[in-house]
Amino acid sequence: MISRNALNFSGGPGALPETVLAQVEAAIKEVPGVGLSILGISHRSDWFASIVEETENNIRTLLGLSKDFHILFLQGGATQQFSMVPMTLLRGQKNAAEYLDTGYWSSKVVAEARREGPVKVLWSGASCGFNRLPEEGELDFSPEAPYLHYVSNETVEGLQFQRVIGRDDVPRVCDMSSDFLSKPCDANKFSVIYAHAQKNIGPAGVTIVLVHDSVVKASSDELPSFLNYRRQVESHSNLNTPPVFAIYVVLLVTRWLLNDVGGLENMAQINRHKAELLYAMLDNSEGFYNGWSRVEDRSQMNVAFKLPNAELDKKFLAESHEAGFSGLNGHRAIGGIRASIYNALSVPAAEKLVNFMDDFLRNNRK
Length: 366
Ligand SMILES: *Cc1c(COP(=O)(O)O)cnc(C)c1O
Fold this sequence. Notes:
Aspartate Aminotransferase, domain 1; Phosphoserine aminotransferase; pyridoxal phosphate; 7-stranded mixed sheet; 12 strands; alpha/beta; binds pyridoxal-5'-phosphate; Aspartate Aminotransferase, domain 2; serine biosynthesis; 37% helix; single chain; 3-stranded antiparallel sheet
């Protein structure tokens, strides 16, 4: 029997590996070797400093990240980074920062950036209903822009960049909240990468920010300390009480990625396999399951689709819930169905969903 937890296709907070959950359960009572509950350990303890250090090292190893980057564990979610990035790099600038408007989350990022300084939307998917990403020839990057911002994986629509975009002489900033540590990425080509934990690598409450040293040096002392990358780096993410529990769970997930999965190449292979199973189901359904995204831009994390009418969407959700699946409802912004297949979602769980979809199709196709 596959547990209900193993069949959690939620868009976020997402499922976590069951081996990690078992360790978390034990740590709530008592962290091995410490003798205290994880919920009551001081953020000023040597133990916690060692946890932060190991988590940082694991992320560095997984990504092959250079020494020029600082790794921060911040609060405020990805949303705080929507503002913290332009506060640092755009305030007082004459030239516009370039943003790509590729979906639900990009649109939110752009709105926040505009509060801080000039923004140019270099490309928008609004006119095509955010069902595809731009091609190389559609993007004319300016060498004068303070930075380029984009979202690597649009969680709601299920669109994922298959390449790094932008110019090497303009800082790249990327929201990787929904595909961070799901595959290898050329992290060293970016100036800022941020990803909250709750899609792929932990519980809500902590956001991982990789900041290049040049950005840290550019941080103005006029910013509130909490929103100043340099102050956060100087305090080792311990400027005020950090989310000890959430960071500990991220550590356990990075250990799982390194030791159980065997690194990001392996993780990518597993994620690709799950995505292929689901997209093959869509492609072979003769239009019963309609994918949201153009084929070339399909996400390996979020598979968004619709049935022939809203009635059938509803029936699909009700029957899938009955069968043990959860989190399959599409985002409220676009409706339909969305199967989020983050790292912790296993291949057998994806196979079980495909079988369910196959049965549902046969019982409901006119
Ligand atoms: C979910 C999501 C967010 C929202 O993050 P919060 O931590 O809730 O602020 C931002 N960006 C992307 C790509 C997301 O998937």
